[in-house]
Amino acid sequence: MKRNNAEQIGKLIQQFLRQESLESPLNEQRLLDAWPQILGPTIASYTQNLYIKNQTLYVHLTSAALRQELMMAREKLVRSLNQKVGATVIVNIIFR
To answer: pLDDT-derived band of residue 12, with 50, 70 and 90 as boundaries?
Structure first.
């Protein structure tokens, strides 16, 4: 017997996450987890206290020279992180 109302499990999970307003927090956590993958372990070791507020990623750095380098590559980092997550999670990065 064939069922006509079958749906893909991925779509059902995504629909559930949207209904429960869990999609944004999940994407934010994915983005934070992708930070060391995008920048590499060496640069990620100089960063701490990453958090997202109002579509802005806040990053505390322990190196002033690295802060300058990352500020110049800010737009590329935003694009790379959003692309890794597959959604527009952040629009800006603030380095402190």
So the answer is: confident
pTM of the model: 0.79
**Token pair listed for 16:** 């559930």
Q: What is the CATH number of domain 25-93?
A: 3.30.300
Distance CA 38, CA 35 (A): 5
Other CB atoms within 10 Å distance of the CB of residue 32: 16
- Per-domain boundaries in the chain: 25-93
Residue type at position 25: P
Per-residue model confidence as pLDDT tens digits over 36-48? 999 999 999 999 8
Residues pairing with 61 in the sheet: 47
| pLDDT at 1 > cutoff 80 | no
Separation between Cα atoms, residue 88 and residue 27, nearest integer Å? 9
Write out the DSSP string of 34-92.
HHHHHH-HHHHTTEEEEEEETTEEEEEES-HHHHHHHHHTHHHHHHHHHHHHTS---SE
